[in-house]
Amino acid sequence: MIMLTIIGMAIVTMVPRFLPAFLMKQSTFKPWVNRWLNAIPFAALGALIFPGIMIDVFPKQPLVGIAGGVVAAVIALTNINVIFAVIGSILTVYLLTM
Fold first, then answer.
1. Any transmembrane segments, and where (predicted)?
2. Burial class for 88, CB neighbours closer than 10 Å (0-12, 13-18, 19+)
3. Which one of 2, 57, 58, 59 counts the least CB within 10 Å of its CB?
4. Contact, 67 vs 96, CB < 8 A?
5. What is the DSSP secondary structure assignment for residue 60, as one 8-state letter?
6. Is the pTM of this model over 0.85?
7. In contact, 62 and 42? CB cutoff 8 Å
8. pLDDT for position 52
9. DSSP at 34
């Protein structure tokens, strides 16, 4: 019974994720709509990451989180592997809080 529940939850989770991918392949949009749709992931990431940088790193020292975010952004802009941006950000926050 547990296995059927897990399989059912997997199917219910996958359908809303795969359905838009199949529907979007068959449709074409104007160029400005495509530009707008391509910008959504960056906007969503910014909305999720920025408050965490400001509040959750060190609530009494928001500049530490901002410094870690700036280091991660600079490393990411150099097109280096994303793991180095994460490691650089972590090291920056660690060194600033020692």
1. 6-24, 36-54, 66-96
2. middle
3. 2
4. yes
5. T
6. no
7. no
8. 84
9. H
Amino acid at 68: G
In angstroms, the CA 89 to CA 83 distance is: 10
Task: Identify whether the C-beta of residue 65 lies closer than 8 Å to the C-beta of residue 32.
Answer: no
**Whose CA is closest to 62, among 51, 72, 76, 46?**
51
CA distance 36 to 83: 28
For 31-60, what is the mean pLDDT?
Answer: 82
End-to-end CA distance of the chain: 51
Question: Confidence band (pLDDT; 50, 70, 90) for 7?
Answer: very high
Q: Do the beta carbons of residue 77 and residue 42 sit within 8 Å?
A: no
> Residue 98 and residue 95: Cα distance in Å, rounded?
5
Give the tokens for residue 60: 């009494």
Burial class (CB in 10 A: 0-12, 13-18, 19+), 57: buried
Torsion angle defined by CA atoms of residues 85, 89, 95 and 98, in that order, rounded to the nearest 10 degrees: -150
